[in-house]
Amino acid sequence: MIPIIPGAAGAIALAIAPQPELRLYFWLPLVLDVGCGPYLVLAAVVALREALTSRAWLRHIPFVRYFVKDATPPRAPLPKERAIIGCILGTAVGDALGLVCEGLRPGRQRAMYPEITGYRFLFGKGMCSDDTEHTLMLAQSLIETGNFHREALERKFVSNFAWRLRFWLLGLPAGIGMATLRAILKLWIGFPGTKSGVFSAGNAPAMRAALLGVCYGDDPGKMHALVRAATRITHTDPKAEHGALAVALAAHLTSSSSGRVDPHRFRAALGEMLGGEAAEFRGIVDGVAASLAGGENAASYARRIGCGGGVTGYVYHTVPVALHVWLVHQDDYRQAVTTVIRLGGDTDTTAAIVGAIVGARIGKEGIPREWLRNLWEWPRTAAWMEQVGVKLADCCAHGTVSAAVPVSALKLLARNAFFMIAVLIHGFRRLLVLPPY
User: Fold this and answer.
1) Helix, strand, or coil (residue 122)
2) For residue 310, is it left (φ>0), alpha (ψ between -120 and 50) or beta?
3) pLDDT at residue 336 above 80?
4) pTM for this prediction
5) Largest CA-CA distance found in the chain, in angstroms, rounded
6) Distances in Å between the alpha carbon of 323 and those of 249, 254, 347, 407, 432?
7) End-to-end distance of the chain based on CA atoms, in angstroms?
8) Is 12 a residue whose pLDDT tops 50?
9) Do 45 and 64 form a contact (C-beta atoms < 8 A)?
10) How far apart are CA 42 and CA 46, in angstroms?
11) Are the C-beta atoms of 91 and 356 separated by less than 8 Å?
């Protein structure tokens, strides 16, 4: 008879639970036999607490207040805080959406995924790859080192970021790029962060650069120095630095402008920062502006620069395509990331870059709620990422340094093992050439 009491409480909670996923969870103890009394008690308490949280009028009942969470409304974020949080979450959501399509040609991608309305990685949930992880590591390093003078900042930032990269590799991340792997191995055998980079023009530096523009774009010299430092720790080809600088500048301009960023304004600002360097890259950016002026769409532009079968990891392919898509869809996160994913190729990185730039402009509220809700990251949840953004914004605003937001290394290792299994399942499907083709 006793288990019937918590079972009845669970049934009541089931009826009033505000969220569908909570209702699904509360069914479990109710369909089990009455021998599950302790579980029923726990489920009933959790159910009632979550349900009562959303019922403001119930808060006036004396015993209810002990079950109800603090309902203090959150404060409105400051402009830079909003941009930083939007940049981080925009990176994560774009990365997770594009991950399942990585490496697919546009045609097969459309056959496998006719619509991009949500995540297809695992049961309608999305997980992030190295694009987001590098952005978060960079953010944590900036929290701990971002208030030093430029010369000291470069040195301390490089040292901090280098150690984060070392330990990140120990977590066995899936899909690490060859240049990044070689650079981190050099770090482990004793090379300093200023000497660890390898000559490569991959897009890894670009995928983590947007946050530098949002945080330090008001000081172009500081931003450029940090972009250079963050790039050369893994990639020493100047092309990688030029591409990363373009992404950082785009994020700065879009997050600090009241209106849309004009392509010619962006081209002029980038040319001023590059000076006499990078004639080839300045020509490529000129080509992006000309393409937009002529009304060319992203797919046609990608084909014209040799990416008709998918955007490659070469930085002079990744960045121009990302800039093209961003300049068209500056205020529409959903359209921006789905457009760049449809171009195929290195879709997690291209969507992460575009998502970071657009997210810096529109903030968290501009990212579709269902995509944020279904981001299945643990222990670095969307809420945890937001905490990183808040702390980084506070450090930037007050010129201070602080302790990084904590996260369990053991939990990360468990998460990475689970993630690796899911990635292998998707990989085996492709190796077996299962339909649709």
Assistant:
1) strand
2) left
3) yes
4) 0.83
5) 83
6) 11, 12, 14, 33, 35
7) 58
8) no
9) no
10) 6
11) yes
Q: Compute the half-sphere exposure of residue 293: CA atoms within 13 Å on the CB side of its CA.
A: 11
CATH code, residues 79-431: 1.10.4080.10
HSE, side-chain direction, 13 A CA sphere, residue 107: 3
pLDDT tens digits, one per residue of 424-437: 988 887 777 655 54
* pLDDT score of 33: 39
Task: Give per-residue pLDDT as tens, 187-245.
Answer: 999 999 999 999 999 999 999 999 999 999 999 999 999 999 999 999 999 999 999 99
Task: Give Cα separations from 180 to 57, 93, 205, 243 (angstroms).
Answer: 55, 22, 10, 16
What pLDDT score does 394 carry? 94
Q: Calculate helix-pair angle for 315-328, 279-293, nearest 10 degrees.
A: 30
| Burial annotation 189-220 (CB, 10 A radius, 16+ → b, else e) | eeeebeebbbebbbbbbbbbbbbbbbbbbeeb
Q: What is the pLDDT of residue 426?
A: 87
The owner of tokens 């546009």 is: 106
> Which one, of 125, 115, 127, 102, lies nearest residue 338 by Cα?
115
The share of the chain scoring above pLDDT 70, in percent, equals 81
> Rounded mean pLDDT of the chain?
85
C-alpha gyration radius of the chain:
23
Q: Which neighbouring-strand residues pair with 126? A: 375
70 or 236, higher pLDDT: 236
Q: Is the peptide bond before 20 cis (omega within 30 degrees of 0)?
A: no
Find the length of the chain: 437
394, with CB counted inside 10 A (0-12, 13-18, 19+), is middle
Domain ranges of the chain: 4-66, 79-431
Confidence of residue 74 (pLDDT cuts 50, 70, 90): low
Among residues 246, 179, 177, the alpha carbon closest in space to that of 213 is found at: 246
